[in-house]
Amino acid sequence: MSRKQGHQARKRFGQNFLHDAGVIERIVRSIHAKPDDTMVEIGPGLGALTEEILLVNPNLHVVELDRDLIPVLRTKFFNYPGFQIHEGDALKFDFAQLVTDKPLRIVGNLPYNISTPLIFHLLGQSGVVQDMHFMLQKEVVQRLAAVPGDNNYGRLGIMAQYFCKVQPLFEVGPGAFRPSPRVDSAIVRLVPHRTLPHPAKDLKTLQAVVRTAFNARRKTLRKALGSLISAEQLNDLGIDDGLRPENLTLANYVTIADALTSAGAPAQQERSDD
Fold first, then answer.
1. Do 174 and 180 touch, CB atoms closer than 8 A?
2. How many domains does the structure of the chain reveal?
């Protein structure tokens, strides 16, 4: 495991520090930050990407959990009075508190071990976000962007696409990090919809339907959703009960959820796993 600036990457924080200058430059170009944007970086690490963003926007907020990195960042960027460090867990952080007159532009090289729950946390705050640019495990980006019929299609992609337009940008090899991860990574852009294309009557009911369906993704809908809705009701909605969960569109799932909401079916408690 490599050392840089005296700090050793920690497995428990899922740390893999980005160091490839070419990749960093490409990310910065993709973000296209402006001096007056409200920029937020999650997990700045040793500040490789942070440094390039600050050259454009000197009023950057960063959220960092590893307290040993705080003095490193403060020392490195002491000459930026607008640089603000928020020590804490991004999974619990209230990003809405950072909003002023502009929505947030969030960036980050997200730890693989928390990327899915963190994305769900951020989707829940998408109303205050202009866009998000994340470095993620390639497989997670594929799941975010998957379409019906794709093996990667599931709860994460459906709920991400409910809230956002998902744009995979480019892939990044393991050599761009220290220490090198054992998987490929990719950059993705998430742009919250100004108007939801398929708004559900009740979000928790939609979340419950999607989660229930993909807990039994290899079964037909009549079995996968049997605890929530009958085969006859599905067919009345114009949905073939013999299909599998991966064959339905976001609009199909909203149709099912809305029917349950109208019938007064209680929503199940939402979880943040996928």
1. yes
2. 2
Task: Let me know whether 103 and 164 are in one domain.
Answer: yes
Closest among 222, 229, 223 to 206, alpha carbons compared: 229
Which residues have C-beta within 8 Å of that of residue 170, sequence separation ≥ 6?
26, 30, 186, 187
Distance CA 185, CA 62 (A): 22
Cα separations in angstroms, 148 against 14, 57, 93, 214, 250: 31, 39, 32, 13, 9
Take residue 175 and report the two structure tokens written for it: 């050599």
In this structure, how many other beta carbons lie within 10 angstroms of the beta carbon of residue 36? 10
CATH number at residue 236: 1.10.8.100
Mean pLDDT score, 190-202: 97
How high is the pLDDT of residue 203?
96
pLDDT mean over 185-198 = 96
Give the rounded distance of the alpha carbon of 86 from its chain centre: 20
* Pair 207, 159: CB distance under 8 Å: yes
Is 268 domain-assigned? no
Token digits of residue 203: 């979000």
Q: How far is it, in rounded angstroms, from Cα 144 to Cα 163?
A: 11
Is residue 119 assigned to a domain? Answer: yes
201, 155 Cβ separation under 8 angstroms:
no
The verdict on 235 and 125 lying in the same domain is no
Average pLDDT over residues 107-115: 87
Residue written as token pair 């073939």: 240
Residue 263 φ/ψ, nearest 5 degrees = -85, -5
Write out the residue range of the structural domain in which residue 253 sits.
203-262
| Token code pair at residue 151 | 């093996």
| Model pTM score | 0.88
